[in-house]
Design brief:
- It is a single chain.
- By secondary structure, this protein is mostly helical.
- The chain has 2 domains: about 55 residues, no CATH class; about 350 residues, Orthogonal Bundle (Citrate Synthase, domain 1).
- α6 packs parallel to α7 and α11 packs across α16.
- The longest helix has 27 residues.
- The chain is globular, with a radius of gyration of 25 Å.
- The structure holds carboxymethyl coenzyme *A.
Length: about 450
């Protein structure tokens, strides 16, 4: 249905339940806009003009608070009720019963793999985990104190120069090959970035191990002939990857889609996603939570920290979410994982500080009034730290988990005939035309 102008307004009997009727008080004209999937098309507003010279009405929406830029069938979130589903499956069931590669397949293909498909997919990922030795040399070039997110972002971008055929994004089998490469190589680059920072020799992938087990092998292997991951920690990491695998149109996924909309190769698009994830309001939050807990230091200092947050001096990291306004279902699941991990590693001493922060915040009128609850990052850092990861690695772990989601969304955008190159409009508020003074 197209936008129609009603003349005269009294003819508004034409409206149905799926329309929005608006009156432009500048002109006195009334318009009926179709509503589809609970949204009006912003471009329909273009037809609403105050004069012939007028470009038409725009919507102004910094941060995309109320603007859907895509139609997507990948992930569903109901922020009011704390619901998260990948391709229709509740996150609780996936985290309980599936492996990470199974979930990655689901995100990318829309259906869970059959047993044979899973075997083939796992083989494909496992056999793409090695990186070219020149990529290793590239990592060697970083300074010893380079942040691993910066290393990951630029190394992923560099992969596009190793696989120039990735530019042929219209070739479906080739596209799928790059997707497998990216999912396979993220843990290798991440672990190599860590080994470079601490000055350890790189540990190469071990094809006998699971996706998460192999990552632990590349992180921690030293002199043993065969690294054997602790099964509890291996499964915990797998669950954490599943919980991070997709989250619809968040900041980094939008970055991937925006870059992808210019028809850039997937390595460049995913590198932009890593960049967006790096920020402290997004994937960098788990690192900031740990730094915050360390700074608070002890339970008795929690009230003072809460008071500072309420005075607006700082934010409570790991709290709040753009979409979840009741609770973040991932945070609930992560708390369970934390118990399992701490049973193996011993309790993280900062857990008491975190629990007290959570207790006070959940009772406090500021946090209740603002609908601020712990998000996925509040407890993930404590688990990662207990498992031995350096704080700088936390957002890197997030990036490994998020890669299948980025790629599923990238491909969906690419194949969506309604999508165009992303190009937001602006409301110009600068000076009107003026001229240079005479020389
Ligand atoms: N601590 C204190 N106050 C907060 C917080 C917080 N963590 N988050 C939001 N608020 C307040 C904010 O000050 C504002 O108050 P007021 O209306 O009185 O000015 C109100 O709540 C709304 O905040 P907003 O910044 O407009 O909300 P947003 O939807 O743009 O931001 C957010 C969402 C996640 C960026 C924000 O809650 C935040 O900065 N949280 C801390 C960082 C964090 O934990 N990020 C990880 C998000 S989950 C992982 C992921 O998906 O990336």
């Amino acid at each position: 249905m197209a936008i129609t102008e009603i003349r005269p307004a009294a003819a508004a009997g034409a409206t149905t339940a799926d329309t929005l009727t608006v009156r432009d008080d500048r002109t006195g004209r009334t318009y009926v806009l179709p509503i589809e999937h609970g949204a009006i098309k912003a471009t329909d507003l273009h037809a609403i003009r105050s004069s012939d010279e007028d470009e038409g009405l725009f919507t102004y929406d910094p941060g995309f608070m109320a603007t859907a830029a895509v139609k997507s069938g990948v992930t569903y979130i109901d922020g009011e009720r704390g619901i998260l589903r990948y391709r229709g499956y509740p996150i609780e069931e996936l985290a309980e019963r599936c492996g990470f590669l199974e979930v990655a397949y689901l995100l990318l293909h829309g259906e869970l793999p059959t047993r044979d498909e899973l075997v083939g997919w796992t083989y494909e990922i496992t056999h793409h985990t090695f990186i070219h030795e020149n990529v290793k040399k590239y990592i060697d070039g970083f300074h010893h104190d380079a942040h691993p997110m910066g290393m990951l972002m630029s190394t992923v971008a560099a992969l596009s120069t190793f696989y120039p055929e990735a530019k042929r994004i219209g070739d479906a089998p080739l596209r799928r090959r790059q997707i497998a490469r990216l999912i396979a190589k993220m843990p290798t680059i991440a672990a190599f970035a860590h080994r470079h920072a601490v000055g350890l020799p790189y540990a190469y992938p071990d094809n006998d191990l699971s996706y998460a087990g192999n990552f632990l092998n590349m992180m921690w292997k030293t002199t043993e002939l065969k690294y054997r991951p602790d099964p509890v920690l291996e499964r915990a990491l797998e669950v954490l990857f599943i919980l991070h695998a997709d989250h619809e149109q968040n900041c980094s996924t939008s970055a991937v889609r925006v870059v992808g909309s210019s028809r850039a190769d997937p390595y460049s698009a995913v590198a932009s996603g890593v960049g967006a994830l790096y920020g402290p309001l997004h994937g960098g939050a788990n690192e900031q939570v740990l730094r915050m807990l360390e700074e608070i230091g002890s339970v008795d200092r929690v009230p003072e920290h809460i008071a500072r947050v309420k005075r607006g001096e700082l934010r409570l990291m790991g709290f709040g979410h753009r979409v979840y306004k009741s609770y973040d279902p991932r945070a609930k699941l992560i708390k369970k994982v934390a118990d399992q991990v701490f049973a193996v590693t011993g309790r993280n001493p900062l857990l008491d500080v975190a629990l007290e922060l959570e207790r006070i915040a959940l009772e406090d009128e500021y946090f209740v009034g603002h609908k601020l609850y712990p998000n996925v990052d509040f407890y993930s850092g404590l688990i990662y730290q207990a498992m031995g990861f350096a704080v700088e690695m936390f957002p890197v772990l997030f990036a490994i988990g998020r890669t299948p989601g980025w790629l599923a969304q990238w491909e969906e955008g690419l194949l969506d005939g309604e999508q165009k190159i992303a190009r937001p409009r602006q409301l110009y508020i600068g000076p009107p035309e003026r001229h240079l003074p005479p020389a």
